[in-house]
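Researcher: Let's continue the batch. This sequence belongs to GTP cyclohydrolase 1 type 2 homolog, and it's 277 residues. Same format as the previous ones, please.
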Amino acid sequence: MTRVGDVVEVLERAYPPELAEAWDAVGLVCGDPDEAVRRILVCVDPVEDTVDEAIELGAQLVVAHHPLLLRGVHGVAADTPKGRLVHRLVRAGVALFCAHTNADAADPGVSDALADALGLTVVGPLAPNADGRTGIGRIAELSVAEPFAGFVERVAGALPTTAGAVRGAGDPARPIRIVAVSGGAGDGYLDAATRAGVDAFVTADLRHHPAGEHLGRPNAPALVDVAHWASEWPWCEQAAAILRDVLGGTVDITVSTRRTDPWTVAAGPDNTGRTQG
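Model: Same format as before. Here are the structure tokens for GTP cyclohydrolase 1 type 2 homolog:
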């Protein structure tokens, strides 16, 4: 019998809690480590949609990237959004485990999964920890350089479709071969990407002013802005593969395909004159 605690042990070997940022909240959120696990759902966001999916699947454990309770709380009353989720999970006998910045920094981690999805070969971390191996973001390579416009199309074709689509900032003809990637919000690593001498930086949640100021600097890489959820979704299959490899056929593991990106509608013509929606 595989227990919740057995799964937690596997995940914490792959994504050591000590790699998490000091402000983060990772690990087992709710659930009994001694309870049996037959089905696991892996997702980016622990939200109503994925809790629905877990209950429908008959899962005993949800493995999520984003924390449910990131900031300190004094209660989980069922008339609050997060408290309601905790109550639903507990009543349904579903445990919740979160691997956030520890999964970002691990080797392999979130950015390795993103680089792999884009057809890139990882050569090292973008912002390395003291060990030189783990850390946030990755520097990676294309086997052959391609124009920036084509590279942006590559990114759009590799990641799940979202209402916000994929945006590129830079010369469409610029040759792209060395790329920095950082799953999730990455504008705090714009300087690191520039220092690394990469041709392009792929991340999420880029803001107008930091992006504009970055592009005005010498040798600044071109930017590709993707949806936060889409940039981290490839990690789900990475985590699922780790669990399958260790737990064998004892547990059924499902990667959620429900789009939990909060943006649901886009309007206006795109570059081809078609309407997004």
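Researcher: Any comment?
Model: The radius of gyration is 19 Å.
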